[in-house]
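Memo to structure team: turn this sequence into structure tokens by end of day. - J.P.
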Amino acid sequence: MQRKGTGTQQDVSEYDRNMTEVRTELTANVWQVHAEVGQAVAEGDVLVILESMKMEIPVESPRAGTVKEVRVKPEDVVQDGDIMVILE
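Reply from structure team:
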């Protein structure tokens, strides 16, 4: 069973409105990481796939941009609100 989902987005700081934090909305295991630093992504591209209760939950890019930082790896456990990816 698969559930479609997106990460939440927040500005990193007052000084750089071009950065977007992609955060998790639930506690889950990181199953796959599709994003790589320097990669150009479009809105809706899958960045990370989470697994929770035997469900795959894709986390999509909330906007087009370039991946600046990836803060998770497969088998990590993420909590609600954790930053997974930063886009610029």
